[in-house]
Hints:
The mean pLDDT is 94. Helices cover 7% and strands 22% of the residues. The protein is built from two helices and eleven strands, in the order βββββββββββαα. It is mainly beta.
Amino acid sequence: MEFDGEDLSHKALTDRLPQDETHVFRNCDLTETDFWGASLAGARFESCVLEQTDFRKADLDGAAFSGGGGMRIRFSDADLIDVSFTNVDLSSAQFGGALVTDVSFTGCRMIGASLTGSRGTGFRVASSNLTLANLGGCSLRGEHIEGVRFDDADLSGCDFTEATFSDCRLIGARLLLTKFAKADLRGADLGQPDDDRLRAFAGAVINQTQANAILAARGITVL
């Protein structure tokens, strides 16, 4: 079933969608649309307004989101296996309790998004803004993370073991019990981390410029 340019805002669509079809939503207004528990496996959402759209408990396995988006989209307790988000505004989106496996976020605006409490094997993220996001307890172990801003994000309990950071920012990020063992941070802007945050970087690899900046902030000059 295809929806093209339709205003479906504030509607409950779960019972209106045939379960044996792949659904396509193109340039639709889905503001506060109710997809609670809907069967949306393989669905396509192209340049749709998703302001406060409710995908809680929905089956979104294999779905693809491109363009569009909105504030406070709810994905709590949804199934998100092999889902792609490309150039989507996911600001303040909620993923708590969602099954997140092989999900990719590329070019997304994820300011204030919350993935803490999500389940599954994890996700990939690139060229995205996760300022003020909450990733508490998430695993990006072994991932190549490129072009991502984690400024002031809560990364408490995250596992970045053996991850590689390229053109990333970690300025002001909360790093309580965060793991960076064997992580390559040479491509990350660490800002001026305090002693507590420096302890979180134990076992990571940094470059000489980063090391000099850390020491200079403590009044030590390296010749």
